[in-house]
Task: inverse folding
């Protein structure tokens, strides 16, 4: 199937951009994520699902701590997306230079954001290359106003150098994911 | 936690509205859904996650057939949302009166829509009151143009009588979901 046939649908299934943060064994980290969905119709038991790629440092920290915070960003925070989403926390500390406090789950909550959700993992589904975490929202608060930043919007306005940097990063990740998903499919067959 | 503190975030985690259709044991059905997320970064292996409430007829048909189609709707199709999303298929056939064909998975594809994805279930996570289905997109096509219909938009423009009808329906479902989620949490504790 030609992906162009379904691209307008697939592109509308991503969430606003959020920094996903976690704290585990004395270390903090944050990555960017856009696959976050609502998972409860009950206002007093709010839940989300979040997909994290297994190759990310944050993934292993969320598996360990069974918690994370989602910090959605304002439209003027593209610089922060570049800082948190284009490089791995394995290369150096991405969180200590940012104003933050520990949320109720122990995950770092970035104070300069559009709004945050502090979440405890309930269960997880192995998606092959990624894990789909089902989590309960234990705390959260709006910080900014207006609309949150989306990746669609950021791609239209970010510098050309970031496009090139991003394309190199995602091309490598797609190759790893494709291989992992095919291997998992072969095991199921 | 007061839900109003996080409502602007939670409200932006829903997808566009889609009719979720399934065919099982000679019967077709469709329900409305707005919890659909992208679940793959690999264009040639497109995947989605879809949450279906266990009390819905479509849920048991997707469990049986291991397949479903997502038919996203145009903004002028509010009448169809009312027809498919406000009553259960247990009360009568909701699909045979609509122009459709069987997709590659055997699920009915509604021909009058914004675009469709025909999906095969890979795995599932039990969310207590709902199941989170991870599925591969095997086929799909854009049918319309412009933007798809969202529940946010529909709530702002639909007739008052539909609001009352919807509020009665969702109040009952929230009560069932709350009880189911609390029971599952007690089992985990």
Result:
């Amino acid at each position: 199937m030609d992906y162009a046939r379904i691209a307008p649908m697939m592109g509308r299934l991503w969430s606003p951009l959020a920094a996903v943060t976690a704290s585990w064994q004395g270390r903090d980290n944050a990555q960017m994520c856009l696959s976050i969905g609502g998972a409860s119709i009950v206002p007093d038991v709010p839940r989300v699902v979040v997909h994290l790629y297994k190759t990310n440092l944050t993934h292993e920290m969320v598996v360990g701590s069974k918690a994370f915070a989602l910090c959605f960003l304002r439209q003027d925070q593209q610089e922060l997306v570049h800082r948190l989403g284009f490089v791995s926390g394995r290369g150096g500390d991405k969180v200590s230079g940012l104003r933050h406090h520990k949320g109720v789950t122990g995950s770092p909550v970035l104070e300069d954001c559009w709004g945050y959700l502090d979440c405890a993992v309930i269960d997880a589904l192995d998606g092959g290359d990624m894990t789909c975490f089902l989590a309960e929202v234990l705390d959260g608060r709006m910080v900014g106003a207006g609309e949150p930043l989306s990746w669609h919007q950021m791609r239209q306005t970010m510098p050309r150098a970031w496009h090139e940097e991003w394309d190199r990063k995602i091309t490598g990740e797609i190759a790893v994911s494709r291989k992992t998903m095919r291997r998992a499919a072969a095991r199921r067959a």
